[in-house]
Amino acid sequence: MKLFPFTALILAFAINIPAQTSDAALRRAIDADRAAREATGSIPDLTASEHLARAESYSANRMFPQAREHWQKVFDRFPDDPGIPKALFGAARSFMWERDYAQAVVWFDRLLKDHLRTKEGREGLAFKGASYVRMGKNLDAARTYEQYITMFPKGERIESAYLNTIDAYREAGRYEDANKWVDRTVSEFRGKPAEVNALQARLRMEIYRENWPAAVNSAETLLSGKSFAGSMASADEIRYLKALSLERSGKKTESLEAYSSVTQGDSSYFGGLAAEKGSSSGVKPTASVRGRRSADFPAPYRQELLREAGKNKIDPRFMLAIMKQESSFRASAKSPAGARGLLQLVFDTAVKYNRKAGYSNLTPDDLYSPAANIAIGAVYIAELKNEFGGMYEAIAASYNGGEDNAARWLNRTKPKDPGVFAAEIGFAETKNYVFKVMNNYRIYRELYTEGLQPR
């Protein structure tokens, strides 16, 4: 790889080229740091702003150890720089991304010690709670979220702090405390999306506890005139969960009526599940789906998909469903989070699987290659399939929201019904992503054989 002059990197940062969207800035940072190491054995001493800019470039591309080297230079040499709170937050978040939550808490505490009243401090307190959740320390998480609620009643994450407190107590088995926080949230946010989200949290908890009459009552409360606008739930989700609760109660006729009330259509995730529940023959292909196959649901990269999916024992149609949602089949696509290529792989995930996929010495730019992207993505999806027992909703949720989060949502799923899992997803973006991917997958199954031949 050609080394860029060090002065070119300085110029790029001086004119504020956005590091998070510039592959060129990342390449220059990598080359300049490599040149410095070859000459001195360590990264160079730069100005605080230059260290922060390189750290941002690395972090945005999920090259976290390299980012932390530059943040550490700022901590050591520029302890009074105004960028310190952002750097501390970045270091803590980097450990969260690497799933080293104990270390993340240590760094969040460093941030909170001197910078609690900054925006980074408020964010850090919320993410400290999230780190405790992922460590299984749910009571510590609840106390942290309660601290946020007390200290920042107008904070940016106030509604999620209430809702996370409910779930933290639920996961700790403190159901009475969880219900108290449902009531408190409903009272605090009456008429707002958080009210519906809190009532949906109660419904999820009753289903998990197999309190079927209470679950039906919770569903009916939500369906009695509540507005779902802006919330994490929908009327069709609640109708589906009510139908499932009736089914589990042994009320077959009532459950079938409830399943039939769920909206049907190609874009309705819960409608597809309800149709399968209500009919032994499942969902049939429709003329409207077949008519738009070539335009909306193509099957490109057939050779690569069949080869890699076959090696890894996964359905190539599921890979197409993800590919359609992630990149619209554009091999050159890159997200603001540094995800690249057809399957939008991030570098720190790709380097866990590149050797198994047959691609050693991987660079971020290699992920723009369709062959490499599909090969590494297939290995990754196969790993997720094994981890989540073949539940495709959990695989999709993990792909978008992270393996640890998907594992937590799956642990909260009882019974192990895909619709219950979907209801447990805690991020709106991930939930919508799962709906879209699973609708794509359903249509791809209707339109193509597993060999990707048109039906």
Task: Give keywords.
mainly alpha, Lysozyme, flat, disordered N terminus, 455 residues
Summarize the structure.
With about 450 residues, the chain is an all-alpha fold. Among the domains are: about 205-285; about 295-445, Orthogonal Bundle (Lysozyme), CATH 1.10.530.10.
The sequence of SSEs as H and E is HHHHHHHHHHHHHHHHHHHHHHHHH
At CATH level 3, the topology of the domain at 293-447 is: Lysozyme
Please count the helical segments: 25
First-to-last CA distance: 47 Å
Sheet of most strands: none
Q: Level of helix content?
A: 55-70%
CATH class identity of the domain at 293-447? Mainly Alpha
What's the gyration radius in Å? 24 Å
